[in-house]
Amino acid sequence: MILTAIILTGIGSYLMRAFFIFALARYQFPPIMLQALEYVAPTVMAALVVSLLTTPDGELVAGVPEIVGLIGTAIVAKGTGNHILALITGMSIYWLLGWLL
Amino acid sequence: MISGALGALPLFIPAIPFAFVFGVVVANAGIPEWLGWSSSPIIFGGAIQVTLFTLIGEGASVAAAVSAALVVGARHMLYSVALAPQFQNQPTWFRWVGPYVLIDQVFVLSQLNPIKEPDTFRRYFLAAGFTFWSLWMLFTAIGVMLGPAIPASWGVEFAAPVLFVSLMMAASNRPDKIGAALLAMIMAYLFAELPNRAGLLVAVLISVLIMLLVTRRGQP
After folding, report:
1. Over the stretch A13-38, which tens digit does the pLDDT of each residue have?
2. Which of B6, B33, B100, B184 gets the most CB atoms within 10 Å of its CB?
3. Which of A23, A46, A98 is facing B181, going by the closest CB pair?
4. What does residue A28 show for φ and ψ, rounded to 5 degrees?
5. What residue spans define the domains of chain A?
6. Residue B212 burial by CB count (10 A; 0-12/13-18/19+): exposed, middle or buried?
7. DSSP assignment letter at A56
8. Which of A44, A66, A74 sits opposite B78 (nearest CB)?
């Protein structure tokens, strides 16, 4: 039964990833569509961050260490374009403030 | 090819604590290790796998657990749309194989420096995708064997939002994209109560529509 659930979920998640790649294989994208697609990466990442910091009831669970840590991450990521450096910065601020406060 | 694999490595670091979270979820659900791990090659999507086993552990029906897991993974449809133009000049086999490794990090990597040349794009995509795939197979195996190897008090799970902020900034290489990202954060917060992270999808769709309306106003 569990294996059935795993296989069904596997098929479903593959179909979600493959569907539009096949469905739009010959579609001539108009400029407005191409512009819309450019916003997908930044908006999904932004929404993911918020959904990771909220409970299922919509409650924000980020305190000062989290917020300051993420702002620090954003600044370093923008300035250097280096994900490792941004990760180290964000985690260091988060741990440091969590320990101080 | 090497650049794809190297690009993938730092983005995998936050997935390591998540592999241990996955191990704990499998253990708590009372699922045999091998069966839990089999979801890594069959599903290949961390949040989807964790949702599925969390609900099964809570005694949900197969239908309820599978549908909730798929709603959590619904954002992959957006990736499928966004990558469709780059998959147009590709061989059919790649259209079949590519989606299997289409996860958050692979999608963003492929959007950061859009590669026009089809062969280069394909090699980069596959190298990044299968680097993640191999590491996820390895670390989820370790995760189900060791379970809670990292104390929750360390807060390593925070690496996930940190990574996504870093990716968000990398993907926002124009002022209007930064605007879109900020808008999506507000919308995601407003719709956070929708079940199984469905708010994420709604937030993205609304923000993209608003951005199109704002930037196209006054244009023919």
Report:
1. 999 999 999 999 999 999 999 999 99
2. B184
3. A46
4. -85, 105
5. 1-28, 39-100
6. middle
7. T
8. A44
| pLDDT at residue B11 in the model | 83
Q: What ipTM does the predicted assembly reach?
A: 0.91
> Both tokens of residue B95?
């259209």
Name residue B209's amino acid.
Answer: L
Flag if A56 and B195 touch (Cβ within 8 Å).
yes
Question: Tens digit of pLDDT for each residue in B124-160?
Answer: 999 999 999 999 999 999 999 987 666 666 777 788 8
Structure tokens given for B110: 């492929």
- Contact (CB<8Å) A51/B87: no
For B163, name the nearest residue in chain A, comparing CA atoms only: A87
Chain A positions in Cβ-Cβ contact with residue B125 (cut-off 8 Å): none
CA A42/CA A76 separation, integer angstroms: 17
A53 to chain B: closest CA residue: B161
DSSP, collapsed to helix, strand or coil, labels residue A24 as coil
Q: Which of B158, B209, B212, B216 to mutate to test the interface with A (most CBs of A within 10 A)?
A: B158
A80 in contact with chain B, both atoms CB, cutoff 8 A: no
φ/ψ of B191, rounded to 5, equals: -105, 15
Backbone angles phi, psi at A57, to 5 degrees: -85, 5
